[in-house]
Design goal:
The complex is a heterodimer of chains A (157) and B (310). By secondary structure, chain A is α+β, with helices and mostly antiparallel strands. Chain A has three helices and eleven strands; from the N terminus they run αβαββαββββββββ. Chain B folds into two domains: 134 residues, Rossmann fold; 155 residues, Rossmann fold. The chains are: A alpha+beta (157), B alpha/beta (310).
Chain lengths: 157, 310
């Protein structure tokens, strides 16, 4: 809890969402994915911060914004160990790890140009074949063409 | 075991050991009884969105010898696909007419998608570089027939192991039968790591070889040859260097085991010298013939038709 307070003191976030423990390499993908460029509220992005677990990490703080679980859980594809803190009145009201579902329907685009999903109006479906951890990526396999992709290289629809 | 429910046959990787054994049992039955009326009154559609004469003729012969009727097309340019119709719409339309759809498509995952948009069973006759399960069934039947068993065999795969869809599917299907694999290929066309790790996860013993040596041949029960295609090489000089290293010649078979058989999915170019054709080890032409029985097995199983008691 002490570390939380330190983080909060830096950003002075009164209300909003803090997404922590994002691997540095995945940070800007996460930024794009959350569509933060069109965010009207204050956004703080920390890059290459020191981390005991990850070596270097990224952090995203968004003021006065609370994301749906379904949106946050998608972050698990690129950052399986990310932690989401919900802040209200400078207090951490909720702290949870992102949760990766067993399969992802119509979230990720297949990297294989010859996959049926890139040539037909239809939903994509990926099965999670490796849930990933601090040392390695999430792995996804296309339900249709069987191509596999690392979470951090996944393209979102 | 008999299958009483109609179902699609899209991928060998999804097939259970029991399903594979049932299809092999059926293949043996149809070799004994190639002509029947098991499909009398039924219509099978063969939708070939890309041409593949050999596979189409084999499937259509299978239907005809089972007493069924065939509708379909052999080239997408003669279908509504050329007008921009989606696969979804084509399949739903044809499903109104046919009891079973055999389809070949240039896009990967097309057969899986088709099986999700209709209740009519879909048989995958090849979807791009992805799956071609009827080829795998005829390979398995050929191995079973020539060796008397599938268990504990040493199978040597030679040539293009990187892009060769048939070797990947055969490797996956053999996981139930304790095989030993020898992978013989140049570095450019080596078995992909994905399949090597599949072997390790399933406790399958394998060795990788760069050289097609007499020792490898002497060790083998089955040699599965594949075509090394020039267009797979970024550097044409590299192709010239390796193209003859993986050619099988009659003189190389002196040390072979008496039960060795040579398989090849065909068409062959020059990876098997013509002088091998008359050797007792050459099996690739009979192998193609087994495709008929394997496809009769797949069609009747997909329709949930029980075989008559012998």
């Amino acid at each position: 809890m002490n570390t939380d307070k330190k983080e909060l003191a830096v950003a002075a976030l009164r209300n909003g969402t803090v997404i922590d423990h994002i691997p540095s390499e995945a940070l800007f993908n996460a930024v794009r994915f959350l569509n933060l460029e069109s965010q009207p509220n204050a956004v703080t992005i920390g890059y290459n911060l020191a981390s005991k677990k990850l070596g270097r990490k990224g952090i995203i703080k968004v003021a006065d914004t609370f994301f749906d679980d379904s949106v946050l859980n998608r972050i698990a594809i690129i950052a399986p160990n990310a932690v989401v803190n919900t802040i209200r009145d400078f207090e951490v009201m909720d702290k949870k790890r992102v949760a990766l579902p067993d399969s992802l329907v119509d979230i990720v685009r297949c990297n294989n140009p010859k996959c049926i999903t890139n040539n037909e109006p239809m939903a994509t479906r990926f099965d999670v074949t490796d849930r990933g951890d601090e040392t390695h990526d999430v792995k996804l396999r296309c339900h249709y063409c069987n191509h596999t992709v690392d979470g951090r290289h996944a393209h979102f629809k | 075991m008999s299958s009483t429910r109609a179902h699609s046959f899209v991928s060998i990787a999804q097939a259970s050991k029991e399903q594979i054994e049932e299809l092999l049992r059926r293949s043996a039955y149809f070799e004994q009884h190639p002509n029947s009326e098991l499909l009398k009154g039924r219509v099978v559609a063969t939708l070939f969105f890309e041409p593949s004469t050999r596979t189409r003729l084999s499937f259509e012969t299978a239907v005809n010898r089972l007493g069924g009727r065939v509708i379909g097309f052999s080239d997408a340019s003669t279908s509504s696909t050329s007008k921009g119709e989606t696969l979804n719409d084509t399949i739903r339309m044809v499903a109104n007419y046919a009891d079973l759809i055999v389809m070949r498509h240039y896009l990967e995952g097309a057969a899986q998608w088709a099986s999700e948009v209709t209740d009519v069973p879909i048989v995958n006759a090849g979807d791009g570089a992805n799956q071609h399960p009827s080829q795998t069934m005829l390979d398995l039947y050929s191995i079973l027939k020539t060796q008397g068993r599938l268990e504990d065999l040493t199978i040597t795969m030679v040539g293009d192991l990187k892009y060769g869809r048939t070797v990947h599917s055969l490797l996956q299907a053999m996981k139930y039968f304790r095989p030993k694999f020898r992978f013989v290929a140049s570095r450019e066309l080596a078995m992909p790591e994905e399949y090597l790790s599949f072997c390790r996860e399933n406790g399958i013993e394998y060795e990788e070889h760069r050289e097609f040596s007499p020792e490898v041949i002497a060790d083998s029960d089955i040699i599965y040859m594949t075509r090394v295609q020039r267009e797979r090489f970024a550097d044409p000089l590299e192709y010239e260097k390796v193209k003859d290293l993986y050619t099988l010649r009659k003189s190389m078979l002196d040390c072979a085991k008496p039960n060795l058989k040579i398989l090849h999915p065909l068409p062959r170019v020059n990876e098997i010298d013509r002088d091998v054709d008359d050797c007792p080890e050459a099996y690739y032409f009979e192998q193609a013939r087994n495709g008929l029985f394997a496809r009769q097995a797949i069609i009747t199983d997909a329709l949930g038709i029980d075989l008559p008691e012998d």
